[in-house]
Amino acid sequence: MPVTDFTVAEKYKYQNGFGSYFETEAVEGALPIGANNPQKPPYGLYNEKLSGTAFTAPRAENQQSWLQRILPASAHAPFEPREANTFDTNPGVHNREKWHQIPNQLRWDPFDMDETVDWVHSLHLVAGAGDPTMKTGLGIFIFAAGKDMDPREAFYSADGDFLIVPQHGVLDIQTELGKILVRPNEICVIPRGIRYRVNLPEGPVRGYILELYQGHFELPGLGPIGSNGLANARDFQAPVAYFDEDTENEYTLLAKFSGHLFAAKQNHTPFDVVAWHGNYYPYKYDLGRFNTIGSISYDHPDPSIFTVLTAQSDHEGTAIADFVIFPPRWLVAEGTFRPPWYHRNTMSEFMGLIGGQYDAKTGGGFQPAGASLHNVMSAHGPDASTHDKASNADLKPAKVGEGSMAFMFESCLMVGVTEWGLKKCAKVQDDYNAESWEPLKPHFKRPSPAQIPHGSKKQ
Predict the structure, then answer these.
(1) Which CATH entry fits the domain spanning 290-436: 2.60.120.10, 3.90.350.10, 3.40.50.1240, 2.170.190.11?
(2) Which positions are annotated as binding Fe cation (predicted)?
(3) Annotated binding site for Fe cation
(4) Residues annotated catalytic, as ranges
(5) What are the binding residues?
(6) Rounded to an integer, what distance in angstroms lies between the CA atom of residue 156 and that of residue 154?
């Protein structure tokens, strides 16, 4: 599956590459030549710099773009708090919401669709760690919306980068830097601060979001794999410049700032960037293009071989967030229990299912649009029925995951669960352990004649 066979056709053009330096103009000649901030920009536009990293970040890490726009982004009235009593996605920091820190394995039934709300009001924080005001940690959201955003609204998050994983429906996203169509089996990253509006051309949508409060996503190193494999840079797509021209109507700019919602009025469209160049921009990726790597001899490799994007902590090899997928793939390992092994992990693992059946959870409880969380050192692995099937399977080459796509948000942080995620959504499965692992039976057989070390005895 080199590309996904989408049911909804693509309608936009893109620039291809990850971390590439692009330049694009919707009007020829709109980008100044040889300078970023000329005294008189072409066509009477304004110069504006958009910085995703500190000015003094090392050149290899520096992310910024120069925009040529009709009016600067600063041309708006002051922000005012909006829906302060209901929009609270920063638990534990001077807010009423709090984290539930619990060691239990958790699994959620499919989250409900909600056709009454737009994108902004569909965001529900399920779990997370850290604090966006300190630019540390991450938040994990569910979105479920049924309405287009108002055509005279735009939204941005000052808290972090949004990694969006649609499960149902299609997102038609107009950003300042151009338009992106995002369908199930694609992901989209909208970096911190970039303004956008979401339309729903195929009706209601639902899916998952990882908001990264610190750093930015990058491709994982390939090490001995070599120069190609996993997610290849050429398969990421960034928008081309597209702009609206309206300086007569009132628009509302919505900001997610420290987990709260703010609004400001302005008398012009936010989507007036005529041209831009740089390496700080939104992008999308078709998960069907992932080049899966696996064992061709024995044993089950670590799931890190399925990492699409990573955001490293200050300790190399330890991620604040990894985005990992489990796509259709061949299993050929000899003499090997092929599903993921039972394990306890210093990392937290939040899993979701876009479609199909995850091969490590065949008991039926892990469903598309549902989720699971195995926190730091919470033991987990295949359910009892999967273990039984895999332990007795004929170990010939087999294709697993046909028509399926599961994913994982993995983090080195201990992840808390919100009141909405634990109780208000009413989706937590009380019988998760009873259905998955409590039915496991002991198969230990003492050798005959028994060779029992001194001090060992049957209880």
Answers:
(1) 2.60.120.10
(2) 343, 349, 380
(3) 343, 349, 380
(4) 300
(5) 343, 349, 358, 380
(6) 7
